[in-house]
Amino acid sequence: MFEGRPERGAEVVLVGRSNVGKSTLMRELTGKQFSTGGKPGVTRSPNHYDWSSHDFVLTDLPGFGFMEGVESGHREAIKTNIVHYLEDNADSILVGVVVVDGKSVIDIIDRHSGPDEIPHVVELFYLFEDLGIPCVVAVNKMDKVDDRDDRLDEVCDRLGLYPPWKQWQDTIAPITAKRGSITPLTEAVRTHLHDAGRDDLFQFF
Ligand SMILES: Nc1nc2c(ncn2[C@@H]2O[C@H](COP(=O)(O)OP(=O)(O)OP(=O)(O)O)[C@@H](O)[C@H]2O)c(=O)[nH]1
Ligand SMILES: [Mg+2]
């Protein structure tokens, strides 16, 4: 189990595969440097960022999926811990942000789709739905994607959302975290915070 979650009544979580840019996005949102890098699996336990004056915490959960130098049993354990974390804290979590790498997400989803297999990203998306937590898919590294609209339509398709993606801007947010270009994400998050009656948290997004 993940330890050390600060006692907070409101939370936004970032979750996604290793190396998609969660820590980079966290840095953009908070202005604080978190350890990032090309080496997958950098984040092994949650990074909580909280503001002592506010009843709010932003959490960067560890990456799952491929992690160099991490054996498969441990990898599964991390995934199980993430699911438990989301279930245990579902009452406080106002928005779940699933971060994906726009360059590779479709290949990865298709590689892991089969009669007995559902890709982690799709599974997470539905887990948030089951838990009643609004979910935003931050499609990161858009600087590396040429066929932008086609790619985003494909992401919708794989998640069971009818294209075109532009009608899902509360759910699909194309960003380039590395360059600080994250407005589609902050606007989507704000929409869900507003729906939850929490405009007071706009200051963090
Ligand atoms: N081209 C490009 N690279 C990015 C972008 N965002 C992050 N990266 C790079 O992707 C790599 C991984 O970023 P991290 O933020 O460490 O990824 P993470 O999801 O926290 O990874 P784990 O901690 O392993 O789960 C780094 O080399 C980043 O510089 C982006 O928008 N575009
Ligand atoms: Mg990280």
Topology (SSEs and partners):
Elements: E1 10-15, H1 22-30, E2 47-50, E3 56-60, H2 72-88, E4 93-101, H3 105-111, H4 120-131, E5 135-140, H5 148-159, E6 172-174, H6 183-195
Parallel strand pairs: 1-3, 1-4, 4-5, 5-6
Antiparallel strand pairs: 2-3
The structure holds guanosine-5'-triphosphate (GTP) and magnesium ion.
Guanosine-5'-triphosphate is lined by residues 18-24, 36-38, 40-43, 62-63, 140-141, 143-144, 176-178.
Q: How would you describe what is shown here?
A:
This protein has helices at 22-30, 72-88, 105-111, 120-131, 148-159, 183-195, and strands spanning 10-15, 47-50, 56-60, 93-101, 135-140, 172-174. It contains six helices and six strands, in the order βαββαβααβαβα. Strands 2-3-1-4-5-6 form a six-stranded mixed β-sheet, with helices on both faces. It is 34% helix and 16% strand. A hairpin with a 5-residue loop joins strand 2 (47-50) and strand 3 (56-60). It is globular, with a radius of gyration of 16 Å. It has a single domain, classed as P-loop containing nucleotide triphosphate hydrolases (Rossmann fold, 3-Layer(aba) Sandwich). It is of the alpha/beta class. The structure holds guanosine-5'-triphosphate and magnesium ion (MG). Guanosine-5'-triphosphate is lined by residues 18-24, 36-38, 40-43, 62-63, 140-141, 143-144, 176-178.
